[in-house]
Amino acid sequence: MARKFLYFIAFCIIVYIGGRLALQFYPERLSQAAFTPSTRFEPQPALAANAYDDPGMWLAKPGMGSTNPALWMPGDVIRDTPGPIVPVFFVHPTSYVKKDHWNAPLDDRDARAISETMVRGEASVFNGSGEIWAPRYRQAAAGAFITDQPEARQAVDLAYRDVAEAFDAFAARLKPGAPFAIAGHSQGSYHIKRLLADKVKRTPLAKGLVAAYAIGWIVDLDHDLNAMGLPACQTLEQTGCIVSYVSFADTADAGMMRRAYERLSGVAGDAADAPRILCSNPLTGTVGGAAPASANAGSAVPDLQMTKAALKPGLAGARCADDGTLRIGEGPDMGPYVLPGGNYHVYDYLLFWANLRSDFQRRAAAWKP
Q1: 355-366 confidence digits (pLDDT tens)
Q2: Residue 12 belongs to domain spanning
Q3: Are residue 7 and residue 116 in the same domain, yes or no?
Q4: For residue 45, what are the contacts with CB-CB under 8 A and spacing of at least 6?
Q5: Cα separation of 100 and 39, whole Å?
Q6: Which of 119, 139, 161, 237 is least surrounded by Cβ atoms within 10 Å, i.e. has the fewest?
């Protein structure tokens, strides 16, 4: 009996190692098989015009009290001195990883739970502002970002329609000329790029923009900055600008991220048209360059349940590589959700939590009408 048990354990280890090796060498193909929905795209009507008047349509909003996930803080952090009130519109990343639909149903409990976890770890960077608005939306499924199927574009456009409606509701609450910020991660950053181009550029809102944080999605220097009408944040106290980076270990291959960008941006995949990626260095507050781990004021390292975290200074440095990606050395132990090959996408915010918090507070204090 004991021998059979040992054989079973050995079999499990072999399967685990085999799976990790397969993901290492064939990550895109296996990800497509695992996450691309096998159903037809389901066209859906727009949400009601006043849908975001309903408090239940927000994962985070002022007035929620202790139930607001955006008010989360790492356990060993002393709350800093409140800065100026700057409302932040935050769009959460993909949390729907099932294959049942191309867009997440709003009543999917698993997707909502993961969304709240992401809001805790990421939107909390901005909670010194006093107001964070994070909408629920019919997000595109994870598989929409790793396939060439036409349904992927339809799913992403449907998700953006919800985000745009939520932003209109957010903007309607702003006082004329008041400052605000926009932030997102991954799919959320894809959507805020479109928001900036469609809803902010050349409008009265543009003067109030403190900064946009489009983290975990590519911003192309040649196409995207012009489309959004924003420069990259070049100095520590610059406002009306954009911060963006994608995090990888030094030896990681960023090809899947580039191809996802190219699919949804309509950019050809040959070398001549490859995106020139904006790399904002979160440890310096500027574009490009390198900073040692000693400049990192604190990575928020979560527990296995992703509910609590310890703030650990000096855990990772940051270097903008020639290909525009942000490289973090060999990569620290942040938990089990590092993607194959050293892709730290899940931890883009958590890796530099304290520095991003300071970055936002500096820009908010520097903003002038």
Answers
A1: 999 999 999 999
A2: 1-35
A3: no
A4: none
A5: 7
A6: 237
Q: How far apart are CA 172 and CA 363, in angstroms?
A: 23
* Same domain, residue pair 20 and 76: no
Q: How many CB atoms lie within 10 A of CB 105?
A: 15
pLDDT digits (tens, 9 = 90+) for 201-247: 999 999 999 999 999 999 999 999 999 999 999 999 999 999 999 99
The torsion defined by the Cα of 64, 193, 319 and 122, in degrees rounded to 10, comes to 10
Containing 88, the helix (H) or strand (E) segment is strand 88-91
Domain identity same for 67 and 20: no
Residue 259 pLDDT = 87
The answer to whether the CB of 291 falls within 8 A of the CB of 245 is no
Rounded to two decimals, the pTM is 0.90
> How far is Cα 90 from Cα 239, in angstroms, rounded to an integer?
18
- Rounded distance between C-alpha atoms, residue 275 and residue 327, angstroms: 17
Calpha distance 276→218 (Å, rounded)? 9
Range with the poorest average pLDDT among 4-13, 62-71, 164-173, 333-342: 4-13
Q: What is the DSSP letter of 77?
A: P
Query: Is the confidence at residue 1, as pLDDT, over 60?
Result: no
27 and 101 housed in the same domain: no
Clarify whether residues 195 and 254 are in a common domain: yes
Query: Residues with Cβ < 8 Å from 118, sequence gap 6 or more?
Result: 92, 93, 95, 185
3-class SS at 263? helix
Question: Does 127 lie in the same domain as 20?
Answer: no
Question: DSSP class of residue 335?
Answer: -
> What would the pLDDT profile of 185-207 be if each residue is shown by its tens digit?
999 999 999 999 999 999 999 99
The tokens of 290 are what?
A: 């390198």
At 94, is the secondary structure helix, strand, or coil?
Answer: coil
- How many domains does the structure of the chain reveal? 2
In angstroms, rounded to a whole number, what is the distance separating the alpha carbons of residues 299 and 223? 32
Report the helix count and the strand count for the chain, using DSSP H and E: 8, 14
Instruction: Check residue 141 and report its DSSP letter.
Output: P
Cα distances from 131 to residues 62, 89, 146, in angstroms, run: 6, 9, 34
Amino acid at 321: A
Angle between helices 187-195 and 150-173 (to 10 degrees): 60
